[in-house]
Amino acid sequence: MQAALEAIGKGGIHVAGDLVLEKHVDYEVANVEDGGIGIQVNGKDNNVVESKRGYSESLPTQDTDRNEELFHFINPSVDSTQEWRVHDEVKRLVKRQGIQEICAYLLQMRKDNKVLLPQSPSTAYAELVRMGMPNGEGFNENTFRKYYNCK
After folding, report:
1. What residue numbers bound the domain in which 18 lies?
2. Could you report the per-residue pLDDT of 26-82, keeping only the tens digit for each?
3. Together in a domain, 82 and 43
4. How much is the average pLDDT of 102-111?
């Protein structure tokens, strides 16, 4: 870290825009499989992030034209640049986790002011199925009702 700051000071590294240093926090979903952090690079596409494993992915922005509907329960206080990240976080969650984990994580997202949860479990269940949650064995609405707590 010290070497990077010295290189910046000597002109060895050019930083365009803000230099942001972030600390890992619990419940962060982005790049969990990689265990890595993203580095924004300047080029033709300013929304390209390269991980330390060398692949890149395009991050959606509010201007990105996506062929899917945004997650319905995003908190209105979430910045418009973060809405698609919350959407993708929920989408990954429902595809990879069981009912108990999904409900627990939704509560954590509510505490983090990312989502607003509806009172009706049926409404929440229908939206999560739309987002990709299985609705077969072990994922039926009655099982969901047991663990869903919006309070």
Report:
1. 1-59
2. 444 444 444 444 444 444 444 444 444 444 445 544 445 678 899 999 999 999 889
3. no
4. 94
Question: Among all chains, which residue has been given the structure tokens 């899917």?
Answer: 68
Q: Which of 42, 59, 76 is the last residue of a domain?
A: 59
| Residues in the chain, overall count | 151
Return the HEC string of the chain: CHHHHHHHHHCCCCCCCCCCCCCCCCCCCCCCCCCCCCEECCCCCCCEEECCCCCEEECCCCCCCCCCCCCCCECCCCCCCCHHHHHHHHHHHHHHCCHHHHHHHHHHHHHCCCECCCCCHHHHHHHHHHCCCCCCCCCCHHHHHHHCCCC
**Are 66 and 45 found together in one domain?**
no
Rounded Cα distance, 77 and 88, in Å: 17
**Which tens digits make up the pLDDT trace of 18-42?**
656 555 554 444 444 444 444 444 4
pTM: 0.57
User: Are residues 19 and 70 part of one domain?
Assistant: no
Domain tally for the chain?
2
Same domain, 47 and 92: no
Closest C-alpha among 22, 26, 30, 25 to residue 88: 30
Whether 18 and 69 share a structural domain: no
